[in-house]
Amino acid sequence: MLGAADVTFGYGDTPVLRGVSVRVARGSLVGVLGPNGSGKTTLLRLLAGTERPLTGRVTLDDVDLRTIPRQALARRLAVVPQETHLAFDYTVLDIALMGRYPHLGPFELEGPDDVALARAALEATGTLTLEHRLFTTLSGGEKQRAIIASALAQFARLDDGADGPGTGAPGRGEILLLDEPTAALDLHYQIEVAALLRQLNARRGLTIVVCTHDLNFAASICRELVLLRDGRVIAAGPTADTLTPAHVHALYGVAADVRYHEAAGHLTVVPTARAGA
Amino acid sequence: MRASATTRPVRQRLLLTVAGFGALALAACLLAPLVGSTRIGLARVFDRSVPFAENVDAQIFFVARLPRTLAGAIVGASLAASGVVLQALLRNPLASPFTLGVSAGAALGAMLALTLAVPVALGGLTAVPIASFAGALGAVLIVYLLATVRHRGLSTEVLLLAGVTLNAFFSALILFVQYFADPSQTFRTVRWLMGDLDVSSYQPIVASLPFLATAFAVFAWLPRPLNLFALGPESAASRGVNVHAAQRAAFFSASVATGAAVSVGGPVGFVGIVVPHLVRLLVGADHRLVLPASALFGAAFLVACDVVARTALAPLELPVGVITALIGGPFFLWLLVRRR
After folding, report:
1. Burial of A43 (0-12, 13-18, 19+ CB in 10 A)
2. Which CATH superfamily is domain A82-172 in?
3. Could you give the ipTM of this predicted complex?
4. Which of A123, A165, B56, B198 has a 20 to 30 Å separation from B48 between CA atoms?
5. Which CATH number does B2-338 carry?
């Protein structure tokens, strides 16, 4: 289980998180919602261990994150950023193989097993047919799926066999953290990535935390939500209880209609009027 | 071609790459000393039946020409490898070993030594290489302090800006010092700034070796972190890279190698940008292949350019920097246009 206990963080004199606590249970699919500047991305960085909290603790299975060696952490926890711009022309397979970094020694070259695991990860995200394409030539949705494959390759172990990462033990507790994974994508690719995340969670037992300001995207995949505003948690819990007109108004200052959409199969949020307008 | 290349295991590609580019570098180093005003033959050079004192070919090869060739090889290898490392560190394929102010610092050091005619000499070295190396390290430290003062890691944006600014500021200082120099000193400075491999003994090469050996030992560790840098520092960290340590290692090793290379051959331009790009076209982006291939190809490239510099207008000997700039300038423009 991944947890943050009363963490604070700031850049210079600007406080970003003011005493935030979250608990991410194994196998859960949690959305972190909030307006721009609410501290979503910073919270994700603290959970990923790429930033350290000023006060409070971030723990993975009750072990303080700062005591876990970087490579050991990377074998259990992976991050997918909003967008990835490469400075050089790597192929899609090269990108997936970068996920093998935490499994190799400083001078070790990846072997056939690593290539097989990387290809299995590409397969799992539907990008195996693109393996020899240059990453820079992919569409936004393809790029995101290739980066997710690279993250899956971080988890894969040799004894996973041909089915690839995350298939064997559902309780292994591997965690994928995604920062606005669909913000740069059009509707088609948004749905594609949403389906992929739901599938990775359901079939492979991956724990997923996704930061987003897209309420409908969150409603479509997340079973739990954490609502952040001005660096504080204003509500947390199951999506059905948390995604309410009152909370939407508290987050964005927007009056909204929240109702269950039969055809879509999840809650939907439609803004009705801007407060004060 | 690149697609079929990536299907081979990386171990095999690495061996092929090193063997291929290594053969090229070796051939360049063996053939270059044969070229010159006096014709000599490789067979006679290595003819062990004639004592060295009587073997004129061997004397010309080992005493007169090989030092210059080896100087070209180590300067070319160092600048090309440093170029690869800095391009990956800055995530900018148009960066060069001189982007971060190393060459301007070295030039200011050399300039001061030439103008003030410093009589210092250390272990057979004259003041100029020592002063240029000191100047290079001074510039590197200033840039490093600027880039770390307000950040916990290295800010690559600040590195780039500080390097460019320091280049400009040091150039102003160079002009200031030059104003007080006499014409012969000015001529020698300008010659030095062109980048010249006019090396006539093994002394400067031997002196630079400890620094280059240290830098290249770090280079051997760098390629995997450099690959991950391409994803951005945060993604690299989340994949297990100690980003701050790797950035520091990359910055200082590339700077020391560049400083040592400049102290031997002056600021030879464009090697550090032309060679890495040509190599990437041939072997792809993987730094485990690009870094060793660039070092070997850089050696071959600069040795070949120096042969052209020595022979094109013989008996005039052009500084090799003129040749690399004549090749590199158009190449750089082609790169800019191609990237659109």
Report:
1. buried
2. P-loop containing nucleotide triphosphate hydrolases (3.40.50.300)
3. 0.88
4. B198
5. 1.10.3470.10
